[in-house]
DNA sequence: TAAGAAATTGCAGCGTCTGCAAGATTCGAC
DNA sequence: GTCGAATCTTGCAGACGCTGCAATTTCTTA
């Protein structure tokens, strides 16, 4: 209940093609379970969906569900964390002389552009969280790990040795980054649906880098 | 499991004195339960403490536990949210011409100075989260509600009508604020133990308002 | 002190999640 | 192809979290 590890450190983008049959089946099951979970949750509301329902809809036994996800919520909103695995490299690839927030913002934008594949699942998840704000804390909580990862990467990039312990700066930038991305994504999903998420995120980072000047007061 | 409401909207600082015997007993029970939960969790680790244990240590029945807290975690880390209730007024009391981040930072600092009462419980909780990072997501998640409250307050203060929907700005400032407070508190708790938390928070806000300039690279 | 309000408790029950030990499936080497 | 090893799936039993309900006890108030 309190533990929050992933049941399986499989990367989110496991290759649908290539590799052995085993891998393909596993990936298919994982996708089926997640889709089933999201679809059912959208239909009935998360609290009216049991693990048994999800497993049945995905065509596996209830016990198998827990071979893929550590918890019911994990199947619904737990994907985000996994995504940040590759992010670190994107960040470290930015030119050395860029200010931290700019580099991070650029890396994030790049990262987002590479994501636009799972549109479908993301749309499901977005609608779900919109209709059921109870899930929001879980989503935010899931970012905690990503944040620590990012803090390490930032410290590394800035040439600070020990990560975060002796300097608040990397931690702060990491936290603010995750926050900005989150807010911008929400914004992009809810209001600015016509704009590319990456653009909205860029805007948020621009505002941050400028010290959050007040907009015109109305 | 997914629901995240409080079992009881009792203010965190219920009057230990005054009022009837009933109120005093309720407050005592609440405190006893929280203390028991924290103490046991620190001793054995959260996952090795059952609700039955907590109830027994507090001298009430297991069923009664759930009359006071919606979940086990709520007893451990759920207090934070309640605290933000009064924050809004502090913010709205700041002079109108202050830049948003400055006003928010000042309000936060003020708010923190008023908190230094529960030192004991806070220390317990801090040590607990430090030793058991699994709890961190829950703590962060608990801030989600506070964040929305704050966004509303900021929008109100900035004179923006509808809260957050049509402008990303208040949401962003609110999110960044909660984030900064969180990081600064962590910092104050872990490293800068000699400095007042309020000071560390102020520093974090100064960095934010300055657009997060890079520290000297080493 | 008696009626009424509110808190405590036990119980029955659903749902989440885990460990364990079978049984089925895939893989790699021959 | 075949066989053994590695891996996945599944059922089962059970601990634990959490809830509704109804009976009982404790406080309040008139």
UniProtKB/TrEMBL annotation, chains A, B:
Keywords: DNA-binding, Transcription, Transcription regulation. Residues 8-20 have a biased composition (Low complexity). Residues 50-69 bind DNA. This is TetR family transcriptional regulator. The keyword Transcription regulation applies. InterPro entries: DNA-bd_HTH_TetR-type_CS, Homeodomain-like_sf, HTH-type_TetR-like_transc_reg, HTH_TetR, MftR_C. The keyword Membrane does not apply. Pfam families: TetR_C_14, TetR_N. Residues 27-87 form the HTH tetR-type domain. Residues 1-26 are annotated as: Disordered. GO terms for molecular function: DNA-binding transcription factor activity; transcription cis-regulatory region binding.
